[in-house]
Amino acid sequence: SEIEKGSYAHYMLKEIDEQPIVIRRILEKYQGENEDILIDPNIRIGMNQADRIYIIAAGTSYHAGLVGKGYLEKLAGIPTEVHIASEFNYNMPLLSENPFFLFISQSGETADSRAVLVQIKRMGFPTMTITNVPGSTLSREADFTLPLYAGPEIAVASTKAYTAQLAVLALLAADIAIYKGLKLDFNFKQEMAIVANAIETLCDQKDRFRELSQEYFTNTRNAFFIGRSADYYVAMEGALKLKEISYIQAEGFAGGELKHGTIALIEDGTPVIALVTQNNVDGLIRGNVQEVVARGAHPMVISIEGQEEKGDTCTIPAVHEILSPLVSVVPLQLLAYYAALQRNCDVDKPRNLAKSVTVE
Ligand code: G6P
Question: What is the DSSP secondary structure assignment for residue 357, as one 8-state letter?
Fold first, then answer.
């Protein structure tokens, strides 16, 4: 069954490997007739009536929310804000007239997110939870739920739930777009199937990522992940994965922001992992790589097929640009996994962390 490790040494690696299956399962579960996507019509109606969507989440789910904002704005054309749950309640922004609240939570039990949900319900605004646990508190208390269908996630560091969150957010945005009569410039289901295959290809390259992890992370105190646009959000998630399970101090940065302070931290041999998947900023992020290399950094460039250059460390298979976060995160998950292994860390149960945090 899905909650047994089988031949895997750790749940985390098993869950990384399950990602293609999860993406395909999501497509199947939400498969409506023809091009339609199977979700409660009240969801698309409710969200389409909103003048602004507020995404509330914590940890990895917050990082998924950042990518999801891009989907809701670029595909569905609805202005979207993303907020850290623990901040929102006590420093609430000025709300729009007709907000719609979208809670993203793997467990559906995060107290920080629930505190916001309770408050928002009191204010009378519509709410929805995207969760891996449909019977969970956040699911029961929100007006609507969209399940992730990722299967139980046991490892504390979230992997398959993150890619499932991105897939469901993309699907939701595509559904609203179709409902609004906006033309998508691509076949959503076809592109998602390509994504599942691309993840599979990367999961077949574990030896390579183990070697890279050894080369970059064996003797390092810190590491930087950089990207621009959607790659920046994936960089944040990659850094979180490395921090959580290997205890290497890691930060995800917007490539262009480095020079405004953080570049001072670059020393001889500092690992800098750069993502290059977004067309309109590929020259700029490559420029940022040059800047850190000039200061002694040990660069790892992860590019996407079609934008690769000689000397890149690895290249992920081509997928539709907007869906690249579902694929580019996989090398970062594997790198973190092997870094933790090399350091003899407890991969599935890292120190000081809990799978779901039920206190504010
Ligand atoms: C905990 C976990 C993280 C997770 C966060 C949000 O801190 O250790 O991995 O991202 O909670 O959890 P949720 O269940 O709300 O997605």
Answer: -
Angle at alpha carbon of residue 282, lines to 277 and 287, rounded to 5°:
135
* Closest C-alpha among 100, 169, 105, 166 to residue 136: 105
pLDDT tens-digit series, residues 43-97: 999 999 999 999 999 999 999 999 999 999 999 999 999 999 999 999 999 999 9
Interval between CA 355 and ligand 1 midpoint (Å):
6
- Read off the pLDDT of residues 148-164 as tens digits, 9 standing for 90 and up: 999 999 999 999 999 99
Q: Please, what's the b/e burial string for 228-238 (b: 16 or more CB within 10 A of its CB; e: otherwise)?
A: bbbbbbbbbbb
Q: What is the pLDDT of residue 13?
A: 97
Ligand 1, residue 158: give the atom nearest the CA: 9
Distance 356 CA to ligand 1 centre (A): 5
Tokens 């930060």 correspond to: 251
CA of 269 to the centre of ligand 1 (A): 32
- Residue among 13, 4, 2, 70 at smallest CA distance from 330: 13
Residue 100 in tokens: 């719609």
ipTM: 0.98
Which atom of ligand 1 is nearest to 113's Cα?
15
Helices (H), the chain: 11-17, 19-29, 41-49, 59-74, 85-88, 111-123, 137-141, 160-179, 188-203, 206-217, 230-246, 282-293, 324-342
